[in-house]
Amino acid sequence: MKLSFTKMHGCGNNYLYFNCFEQTVSDPEALSIRLSEPHFGIGSDGIILISPSDKADAQMRIFNADGSEGRMCGNGIRCVGKYLYDNGMVGGRTTITVDTLSGVKTLTLSVKDGRMETARVDMGAAILTPRDIPAALDGERAIGVPLVVDETVYHITCVSMGNPHCVVFLEEDIDQLDLPRIGPKFEHNALFPERVNTEFVNILPDGSLKMRVWERGSGETWACGTGACAVGVAACLTGRARMNEDITVHLRGGDLTVQYTDETVFMTGAATTVCKGEVEI
């Protein structure tokens, strides 16, 4: 049996996309583990299934490289928007909806020569209450909370954008971090019952933010859309940025623009098709 796929990326955060309007993917957990492996598979951060939905233009399901299912992916949803538009599945509309495990998200597409170039995604309200993130912390918010990891005290700000994030602002250059060593210690910390995505952030002289991310289930990735949103929110909460203004977040794979408002978080960025192919199952 063969399955058709499209490899796409948003800022280097790359997934294999399967059109489940036309085919059935069984056991996506095992398939994601197999295909994500760079040497014996295709190589990706996971797989995303694009399926029919009774409440949106399409549904997306995200499976990480370790087979675990994610609730939301900001870079992935932009790629889903591009797939739907470029393949004529939304009738040329530039405002579309995508159903996720974190709710229905609305995308506003920017199009050139019949192809989507960028999308602005209404990511929904940031969740700040620790019990809802979830994080085993008291109080209504977790802003600048000290946490000892590997004998070092870090000050963390916790945010959920449909999945849990732990944001750490650092003075030292994040490019020098040994992320493969420290990332898993955050991900599996007892403070986070569902594990956590961790963003390490520098504030640049122009006020923009530079981040590296360790994603639960995938390790370090070149970008994380929900992570960039969490970083923008955390920057506002800690006085490092302003609400209702565009915040540029530099990721290893490119830049995203985030805006945090009282009602929601907007994320804007590009999406790119890499290649199409078939895989034998």
Secondary-structure blueprint of this entry?
Elements: E1 2-10, E2 13-19, H1 28-36, E3 46-51, E4 58-64, E5 69-70, H2 74-86, E6 95-100, E7 103-112, E8 115-122, E9 145-149, E10 152-160, E11 164-169, H3 179-187, E12 197-203, E13 209-215, E14 219-221, H4 225-237, E15 247-251, E16 254-260, E17 265-270, E18 272-280
Parallel strand pairs: 2-3, 4-6, 11-12, 13-15
Antiparallel strand pairs: 1-2, 1-18, 3-4, 4-5, 6-7, 7-8, 8-17, 9-10, 10-11, 12-13, 13-14, 15-16, 16-17
Overview of this protein structure:
The chain is 16% helix and 42% strand. The chain has four helices and 18 strands. The chain has an 18-stranded mixed beta sheet that branches. A hairpin with a 3-residue loop joins strand 13 and strand 14. The longest helix has 13 residues, at 74-86. It is globular, with a radius of gyration of 18 Å. The N and C termini lie close together (5 Å).
Oligomerization state of this entry?
A: single chain
Q: What is the strand content? A: 35-45%
Overall pLDDT score: 97
Helices, by number, come to 4
- Could you give the count of β-strands? 18
Low-pLDDT residue spans:
none
Biggest sheet features:
18 strands, mixed
Shape: globular
Distance between the termini: 5 Å
Report the radius of gyration as a whole number of Å.
18 Å
Label the structural class: alpha+beta
Report the helical percentage.
10-25%
Question: Helix-strand pattern, N to C?
Answer: EEHEEEHEEEEEEHEEEHEEEE
Tag the structure with descriptive keywords.
42% strand; alpha+beta; 281 residues; 18 strands; 4 helices
